[in-house]
Write a structure and sequence with these properties.
Layout (H helix, E strand, L loop, with lengths): L2 H6 L6 H9 L7 H36 L9 H37 L6 H4 L8 H8 L2 H25 L3 H6 L8 H38 L4 H12 L2 H22 L5 E5 L3 E6 L9 E7 L1 H12 L4 E3 L1 H10 L4 E2 L5 H15 L7
Parallel strand pairs: 1-4
Antiparallel strand pairs: 1-2, 2-3, 3-5
Helix pairs in contact: 3-4, 3-9, 7-9
Length: 359
């Protein structure tokens, strides 16, 4: 990535870009956290399982060494039997540490990111075997950080180990002349102190690397202003296409509304600007329903259809404007309009009723 690209990526990554990166397996992952978990698991093994495990393994080997007459090695079957016995005893000794490594390793991975199957990570890619890409990765910022972490682990752990174990130097020399029975205890104490130093050093390194890894990952996913605009446009759709879709939807709704005008009972209109078509059939609803409404050209079209279908038109500008503003299409008129509309409906039905002849 060039410096210009880095400088132009000033916007925070969108939720979509973060999700796309996760789907491709591009998630922040700190190897130092896993290393700390492994060191901590070995410390727990030393603290809770190693003394008892060594004692049991020592008893098993002592039984074999002190009583060799119990094991006849006359053929291959005897050798296999002895190897199986030693193998089972060794496996019982190593099983706790293997389980601890597995549990702590998986736990450190799950704590950073939940597991997911990503084919993109196993798909063959030429840049993974390209020497030039390899050199770029080595001498990149991430490569320099990895190199610095390696130097830190060697230097800091070595320095801390020196000061921590300096006081045990003479005790280590004394172990050469001490009773062999106490030598394992002395070595165990020294080893435990070394492991504690390693755990503390890796804890510091893991904490720093955890936050650095997420910062670097977040920085790599930052977007330019143009990328943000393009993503928003893609998410919301092309404005021209959406405008065209809205226009088509309005035309279809208007056409459906015009098809309902011939079913209207009456039209309330402002001479040219407003028109509201009402339908009232006592068997269908308790109150009149607005089946169509419009202004200007739509209003004139409603009146034209009404006249063609011999639907009475009443000009009442205040009523037409109020009803147009307050009632939507396919809705029952509110009680405030009952009285005015009832009078008009009465006139419509009165006009339809044939007058009786007076004899």
């Amino acid at each position: 990535m060039s410096d210009e690209d880095k400088d132009s990526k000033t916007e925070s990554p969108s939720h979509k870009k973060l999700s796309d990166a996760a789907e491709k397996g591009n998630v922040p992952f700190s190897k130092e956290v896993t290393l700390f978990a492994s060191s901590l698991s070995f410390y727990f093994f030393m603290l809770f399982f190693l003394p008892n495990g060594i004692a049991k393994l020592g008893e098993a080997l002592k039984d074999i060494i002190e009583k060799p007459d119990q094991w006849q090695l006359e053929n291959a079957s005897d050798v296999v039997s002895l190897a199986v016995r030693i193998g089972w005893d060794s496996a019982a000794f190593l099983l706790p540490v293997m389980l601890l490594f597995a549990v702590f390793g998986l736990g450190s991975s799950f704590a950073q990111n939940m597991p997911s199957f990503v084919l993109e990570r196993v798909r063959p890619q030429m840049n993974r075997v390209s020497p030039m890409k390899g050199f770029e990765r080595i001498f990149s910022v991430q490569g320099m950080v990895e190199f610095a972490k390696s130097i830190f682990k060697v230097a800091i752990v070595g320095v801390v180990m020196f000061f921590a174990m300096r006081s045990d130097f003479l005790h280590t020399l004394d172990a050469m002349f001490a009773d062999p029975v106490v030598v394992p205890a002395m070595l165990y104490a020294s080893m435990k102190k070394m492991v504690v130093v390693i755990v503390l050093a890796t804890a510091v390194l893991a904490t720093a690397d955890f936050f650095w890894t997420r910062h670097h990952w977040y920085t790599q996913l930052k977007m330019t202003k143009q990328e943000v605009k393009d993503e928003n446009k893609q998410a919301m759709g092309d404005p021209v296409v959406k405008s065209r879709q809205r226009s088509l939807m309005r035309n279809r709704a208007r056409q459906r509304m015009m098809n309902n005008v011939p079913r209207a009972t009456l039209i309330i209109a402002n001479p040219t600007h407003y028109a509201v078509a009402l339908r009232y059939v006592r068997e269908e609803s308790d109150a009149p329903i607005v089946v169509a409404k419009g202004t200007d050209l739509v209003a004139l079209k409603i009146r034209e259809i009404a006249e063609a279908n011999q639907i009475p038109v009443f000009e009442d500008p205040p009523l037409a404007r109020s009803m147009f503003a307050q009632v939507s299409v396919d809705s029952v008129i509110p009680p405030a309009f009952y009285k005015a509309v009832a009078e008009l409906i009465h006139r419509v039905y009165a006009a339809r009723t044939p007058k009786r002849r007076i004899r």
